[in-house]
Write a structure and sequence with these properties.
Rossmann fold, 2 domains, six-stranded mixed beta sheet, four-stranded antiparallel beta sheet, 10 strands, disordered C terminus
């Protein structure tokens, strides 16, 4: 059984004749400890696909299964602890420090203050963002924001991390470092589903896919591969 499976997922915005079709019969299987990278241009459906896969948005038709459980049906929990969707940090209060942002997650789950503090520092260190703890969100560069997003996700001990364009706006060196970070998490058994703004930047991915006008192409299901899988870096 795959960790994540999308079966014939369709999604539109608008009504009837004015509806804009974003996803067309999208299928995907993703296993634990696997990284899949999706490239798509503007208005390709890429971001919507990630939100539907993470259970943030329901599909209009089709099914999204996580560990065999249908998370697309009405009444299904929208916030599954084992799926970490990395939200952008833009728009958060500029005076808020990274530490203050992250500590809210364990405290809200009833973790005592001392343990919560240790969890935050461990997550930041694992994401390579420990030097950002006391900085304000507005002071972070793009790569630092992504690392903080990853640290925030790790606080939930996820089985799947879904992250939209983690390398956008980062330098080539920063991009490689961020991909190495995500690859290291995959090698520890966490699945990663990410998008990229650069079709040539599939470093570290087990599978590369493209999406255009709502149609997903590539190695959708491992037994039915149509695209050569990428080699892992030595």
């Amino acid at each position: 059984m795959s960790l994540l499976e999308l079966r014939n997922v369709c999604k539109s915005y608008g009504h009837q004749a004015q509806a804009h079709v974003v996803l067309k019969d999208v299928c995907l299987e993703l296993d634990g400890g696997e990284m899949a990278t999706i490239w798509g241009g503007r208005r390709s459906g890429r971001s919507t696909f990630l939100r539907v896969a993470a259970g943030i948005e329901p599909p209009d038709r089709g099914t999204v299964l996580f560990e065999g459980h249908d998370i697309s049906r009405p009444g299904a929990p929208a916030d599954l602890a084992a799926i970490a969707y990395c939200h952008p940090l833009d728009g958060l209060a500029s005076a808020q420090s990274v530490y203050d942002l992250l500590i809210k997650s364990p405290l809200s789950r009833g973790v005592d203050a001392h343990t919560a503090e240790q969890m935050v520092h461990t997550a930041l260190e694992r994401a390579g963002a420990d030097e950002c703890a006391e900085q304000g969100i507005c002071a972070l560069d793009r790569a630092e924001r992504v690392r903080v997003q990853v640290a925030r996700a790790l606080l939930r001990s996820p089985k799947l991390i879904v992250i939209d364009e983690p390398t956008l706006g980062a330098s080539l060196e920063q991009r490689e470092e961020l991909i190495r970070l995500l690859r290291s998490l995959v090698d520890e058994g966490i699945a990663v589903l990410q998008s990229t703004d650069n079709e040539t930047f599939f470093l570290g991915a087990d599978r590369a896919l493209t999406i255009d006008r709502g149609i997903l192409r590539g190695e959708i299901c491992p037994p039915m591969a149509e695209v050569l899988p990428l080699r892992r870096p030595a």
